[in-house]
């Protein structure tokens, strides 16, 4: 698959507007560490050696822009080499893509602007189950550039909520009707499963989308689109807007480069525009994450057990493994990723744990 730049066919977002939604935070040095286990044995692993610099906390600028718009673009999370590796892996698994060709699977209404010229979107799953080939995809789970934002939006103990997959659109392929919203954009009802909140300076999103861009999305190309600020809306979306037929000037397609990551609250109304480039397939890997106690999906209950599909657990770091925990509170022995990349087990006192065993006959109440 060739990835060639083409001229944009229409301008949906000016360069200045894109830059206003992009943050390049002043980095803090991630110190090199060696293995050291605390006396209370709560430190499960040391941070990996690193020569790169990353912020260790979500910056004030990032907090402002995410709260203002409901999404944020983080530039250059993956290196060009990592993008190349990811796309080569996708090429090797391209035969496994499943096109949404049936009418029942289409994401946009035929005849609307989001429908495109006909081809269905292609989905490629199991990206964490390819052994060594999954290394780049697994890195997103606890990427040091993203962990501070995950903590700032979801809190410590955040968890993967859905199985990630690669979305692909060929020339003319359909987009996705606008959906989501703290106030559901279709029904106008409050949607607690996707809700966004900010209380006394603490941001929380019940479900966070993480779109890892693996090809360039230039202005007018199509792909991921969003209605900025809709995560704080109090009213139902006007008729016709969900299909891009009305008020399209309020539907924004962020311009991104391969390697960028778009983080968006599922409480922010979003979707996808039809793909316009003729010689470049759209590729993005979509993850969803949730706070420690929240769950929307149920893939973590594979085969009736509190586990994800077996292949996902191969070659994980302790930090990546921590993100695969099922939903439960931090205080109940949950592994938390620390700012230096190590993993710390949060727990209650031994006396309280013994009390639970005495009362309930089980380790946890």
From TrEMBL:
Cofactor(s) the protein requires to work: Fe cation
Top-level taxon: Eukaryota
Molecular function in Gene Ontology: metal ion binding
Span of the signal peptide: 1-20
Protein name in UniProt: Phytanoyl-CoA dioxygenase
Pfam families to which the protein is assigned, alphabetical: PhyH (PF05721)
Residue ranges of the region described as Disordered: 328-354
Protein keywords: Iron, Metal-binding, Signal
Organism per entry: Fistulifera solaris (Oleaginous diatom)
InterPro entries membership: Phytyl_CoA_dOase-like
